[in-house]
């Protein structure tokens, strides 16, 4: 029986459900945020999230349409020694299933979604958000839903909080909070550290784009970018009391990657990597290698959409004979290589 190892105790489940189970740091964070007396997890799968709700709440109702998955959920809760979960196998939208639940403090749903979709849509998740809000309105007004994190805030047609979560520097989850659970319009959180950034009604900074990198470059946590919080991030980096050393601007590397750049150095917990910009070169590994010699560099990490088969060949050429302590990230914009020395990582 396959088990998922990223959990403190490896979970039981089939391969597909293990892949979709909530990673433990996310599940723990969410359970803290949704801590209440009675919670219903109405699409619980194999229980990756249910376990942590049950550790925080007095009672949890776990609903799942697939009989095999709910069996795994029972085994997983048992493995964690939890005795406060009531399991219900059935369609979460079936009135008979809903009738078996008491009034609850929170309804949580991590719905199923198509395995692949050209463009993620909030309407393709199952059970759908409007239907759940309607079906459970007698039970609570506090709902939380998981939605695909690729959805930008403008594409979420509900008056809810949009919380983008990154885990180990990668965008991982989006949670939507309704009713009294809604605290902000948008929030970005970086896990496992648990640092956050909140949307402001009128951030001071306006996002200005530039084609030229300044002395320093900053790679924001992907949850900040996904939540549309770059102006708030810049606001948090400007020392309003200090000397003016130039503003932060947005430098687009390619379709997926962007950096903030400034002549000022600031440390911020929602910045994944803080860089000193070493310079730009044409993308010629041998020339770049020669440029980096004598600069105490040991690693050159390629940050470009490069064919995975070619990655290590190119990287070997870039790092040939480099024995230093510093790490350089190499971004590629068009034909130009941008060399950034890592000064500080979160
Ligand atoms: C993404 S998985 C949940 C994963 C779970 N949160 C975890 O961490 O292990 C979504 C689940 O919703 C279930 N589901 C889909 N439609 C449902 C419905 N109408 N009622 C109940 N469960 C449903 C699917 O069978 C699937 O197991």
> At the first level of CATH, what is the class of the largest domain?
Alpha Beta
Helix/strand-derived category reads alpha/beta
Radius of gyration: 23 Å
Bound molecules: S-adenosylmethionine
* Whole-number total of structural domains: 2
Order of helices and strands: EEHHEHEHEHEHEEEEEEHHEEEHEHEE
- Please name the CATH topology of the largest domain: Rossmann fold
Helices, by number, come to 10
Q: Could you name the CATH homologous superfamily of the largest domain?
A: Vaccinia Virus protein VP39
- CATH structural architecture of the largest domain: 3-Layer(aba) Sandwich
| Percentage of residues in helical conformation | 10-25%
Overall pLDDT, averaged? 94
Can you describe what's shown?
This protein has 346 residues and is α/β, with parallel strands linked by helices. It folds into two domains: 3-183, Vaccinia Virus protein VP39 (Rossmann fold, 3-Layer(aba) Sandwich); 216-345, VC0802-like (2-Layer Sandwich). 23% of the residues lie in helices and 30% in strands. It has ten helices and 18 strands. The protein has helices at 15-20, 24-33, 50-56, 67-79, 95-99, 129-135, 222-226, 230-237, 285-292, 308-319, and strands at residues 3-4, 11-12, 38-41, 59-64, 85-89, 106-109, 143-147, 161-167, 170-177, 186-191, 195-198, 216-220, 249-252, 258-262, 271-282, 297-303, 326-333, 336-345. The strands form three sheets. The protein has a nine-stranded mixed beta sheet. The chain is elongated. The two termini are 37 Å apart. The site of S-adenosylmethionine has 23 residues, from strand 4. Residues 20-22, 43-49, 63-66, 69, 91-93, 110-112, 126-127 line the site of S-adenosylmethionine.
């Amino acid at each position: 029986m396959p088990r998922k190892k990223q959990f403190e105790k490896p979970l039981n489940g089939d391969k597909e459900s293990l892949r979709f189970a909530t990673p433990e740091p996310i599940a723990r964070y969410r359970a803290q945020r949704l801590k209440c007396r009675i919670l219903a997890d109405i699409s619980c799968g194999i229980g990756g999230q249910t376990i942590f709700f049950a550790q925080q709440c007095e009672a949890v109702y776990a609903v799942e349409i697939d009989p095999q998955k709910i069996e795994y959920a029972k085994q997983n809760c048992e493995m964690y020694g939890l005795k406060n979960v009531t399991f219900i196998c059935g369609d979460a939208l079936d009135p008979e299933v809903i009738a078996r639940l008491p009034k609850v403090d929170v309804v949580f749903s991590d719905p199923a979604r198509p395995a692949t979709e050209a463009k993620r849509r909030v309407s393709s998740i199952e059970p759908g958000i409007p239907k759940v809000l309607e079906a459970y309105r007698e039970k609570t007004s506090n709902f939380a839903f998981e939605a695909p994190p690729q959805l930008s805030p403008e594409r979420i047609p509900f008056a809810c909080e949009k919380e983008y979560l990154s885990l180990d520097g990668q965008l991982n989850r989006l949670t939507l909070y309704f009713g009294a659970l809604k605290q902000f319009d948008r929030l970005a959180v970086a896990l496992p550290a648990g640092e956050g950034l909140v949307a402001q009604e009128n951030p001071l900074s306006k996002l200005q784009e530039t084609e030229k990198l300044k002395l320093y470059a900053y790679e924001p946590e992907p949850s900040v970018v996904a939540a549309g919080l770059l102006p708030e991030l810049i606001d948090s980096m400007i020392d309003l009391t200090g000397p003016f050393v130039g503003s932060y601007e947005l430098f687009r590397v390619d379709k997926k990657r962007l950096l903030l750049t400034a002549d000022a150095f600031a440390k911020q917990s929602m910045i994944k990597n803080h860089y000193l910009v070493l310079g730009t070169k044409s993308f010629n590994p041998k020339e770049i290698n020669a440029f980096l010699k004598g600069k105490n560099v040991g690693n050159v990490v390629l940050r470009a959409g490069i064919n995975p088969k070619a990655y290590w060949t190119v990287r070997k050429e870039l790092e040939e004979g480099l024995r230093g302590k510093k790490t350089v990230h190499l971004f590629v914009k068009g034909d130009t290589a941008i060399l950034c020395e890592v000064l500080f990582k979160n």
